[in-house]
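ok posting inputs for the nicotinamide-adenine-dinucleotide job
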Amino acid sequence: MATLFAEVSHFLASAPMKLFIGGQWVDAVRKGRFETRDPGSGKVLAEVAAAEQEDVNRAVEAAQRAFKTSGWPALPANDRAVVLHRLADLIDKHRDILAQIESLDVGKPFAQAAGFDVPFAAQTLRYYADLSVHTRPREPVAVSRHEAYTLRVPYGVCAFIIPWNFPFTLLSWGVSPALAAGNVAVVKPAEDTPLSTLYFCHLAQQAGIPDGVINVIPGYGDPAGAALAAHPGIRRLSFTGSPEVGRSVAVACGANLVPVKLELGGKGAAVLFEDIDLDQTADALVSALTLNTGQVCCTATRWLVHESIWDPFVKRAKARLEHLNIGYGLLPGTEMGPVVSPKQKERVLGYLRRGVAEGASALLEGGEAEIPEFKGGFYVKPALLTGPPENVCAREEIFGPVAYLLPFKAEAEAVDLVNRSFYGLANSVWSQNLERARRVAEAMVSGNSWINAHNVFAHGIPYAGTNLSGLGGGVLGPETLFDYLRPQSVVRPLS
Ligand code: NAD
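and the output
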């Protein structure tokens, strides 16, 4: 077993963990609790207070109070940015602690959490803090015989419902633009992975974020998430998760006419032309497929391979996946950890069974992975399938390390196969012919098209799904800051 940092042991020993409302750590009104587990061992990490309707009410009221009285919305953007930079610095300072918490709660390799999840979260805070400083809060408009200007003002209480695959990163993608714009937040983390979000609250307090500006209410999707989505006191909601739940959240927001941003699932394709470097491309796609044990919304799970390179490419990808180091996230050398929960493990295994029953054949058989030292963990092996394009595993999001391979002959055929999906989050095209690669990248219908790479994220580039993958403008782009600022025009006739 890996050694925990003293700070992490101390944090876990503080369980049962409480809700963070109005700057106070409080029990749930009905005293409900749930357990969060280590997916690598199956053992309970901590008991956590489970929010219900009354707690959601308290959190929204605390946020409303903070919006009125904390001074946060009225602070000049550069003063807010100082506080947010302080928070980002604290995140960086606590990088390894946060990465260990994230690795324990999600199962992901520590190196991935320390190398991406945590630092990217700090960078997101800094990006929106800096952007807010360069945004005009008052824009004069030329209207004849009138004085006119448009203010950009925060909405008020913004709600965030977060999934379990990148809890800390997605927390920051959500709240950073909202806070930088002067809003206040109520956050419901996923019930499988609440820990890094709770630790974040300690850092937010240390950074000087006023009480009530950030409220965190762990709990089950229903009742906590559903109550938050339906609460008439919220002014905006951002949801990241599955299309099924996203739809119900959007319906609840629609009933209150609350604007909603949805970041949903995907079934990303990678189109591999005959002129690729076989070794490099196999390495890159295997990394993409196994990152976070395939629990990545934008990962490439449909590999469209030019028929002339089918055999050598499959051979290389298979060889790499067979030698993948699957194991406990905190052990050095682990390349792929467990999936997050028994439910998720059964989802992956169930899709493999259904896919084969519908006529798919396994190029690399996946299934349960046995890790002798961690028998209680939720481990699966990567799988490569092939078969008819209408197979369930070629169409639906599995959210595990499973790729469905299809051969193609011509460019148009590949583009057509990519665009048959009802998702539209992210695809990639691989070729040394950049003119062709650009043509295909632009023809694939999705929020993100990558060339000779997969999973590239950068501040300033909007990450937004289309079709079943999301609506409402996405995240990470400069426009996202304006999603959290409502325009208010002031006009006066000149006498
Ligand atoms: P999920 O939809 O089951 O849960 C997401 C969140 O919604 C959790 O906090 C959950 O508690 C909450 N929830 C569940 N039921 C609810 C309800 N009735 N009302 C309100 N909230 C409810 O999704 P998941 O399994 O946690 O995450 C996996 C999904 O998220 C995948 O489809 C994945 O592609 C998607 N995802 C998308 C992005 C993106 O940026 N597009 C990023 C990460 C994950």
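notes: The chain has 16 helices and 22 strands. The first helix runs from residue 6 to 13.
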